Amino acid sequence: MIRVLFVCLGNVCRSPMAHAVFAHLVQEVGLGDRIAVDSAGLGLWHVGEPAHRGTLAELARHGIRHDGRARQIVRADLSAFDYILGMDHENLAALRSMATHRGATSHLTRQHIGLLLDFAPQTGQSEVPDPYYSGQFDEVYSLVRQGCEGLLQHIREQHAL
Q1: Which site in 20, 21, 130, 149 is 20 to 30 Å from 155, CA atoms measured?
Q2: Is 38 assigned a catalytic role?
Q3: Which domains does the chain have, with CATH numbers?
Q4: Is there a catalytic annotation at residue 14?
C-alpha cells in the first residue's frame, strides 16, 4: 500500500482539497486498493472541524465529496506515509524540521517529503496559496488538481501501477 499525506497549516482548506481530489483521481483509475490518502494540519486550531465551506463548495462544483475532519499531524505520520506533501515552503520547512528532530530521518530514504506543486511544473508556481482569507478557492482547486494529476502519474510510474 502506498500512503500519501497532504499537509497545510490548519487542515481545513488546501490539504483537505488535495486529499479529496487525489482520492477521487485514485478511485477513477481503480487504484483505491493500492493507494491510501489522508491529510493533516501543522496546527491544532481546527482539529475536529469539517473542511472550510469554500473548499467543500469548490469540490462540490467538480462532483467531489469530502467528509473528513481536520486533524493535526502526529509523529507516527512521519514514518507511516510514503509521500508527505506540503502546500507551501513554510509547510515544507516545518515538515522537514519535524522529520529531523523526531528521529524520522532513517525513513526518509524511501519517503518523499516535498511540495505538491513539485509535480506540476507547468503551473510555474511552487506553492498553493492559502484561500482562507482570499477566498480564491477556484484558483486553489486548479493548482491542486494539476499537482494531484502529476503526483498520480509519478506514483504510477515509480511503482509500476
Answers
A1: 130
A2: no
A3: 2-158 (3.40.50.2300)
A4: yes
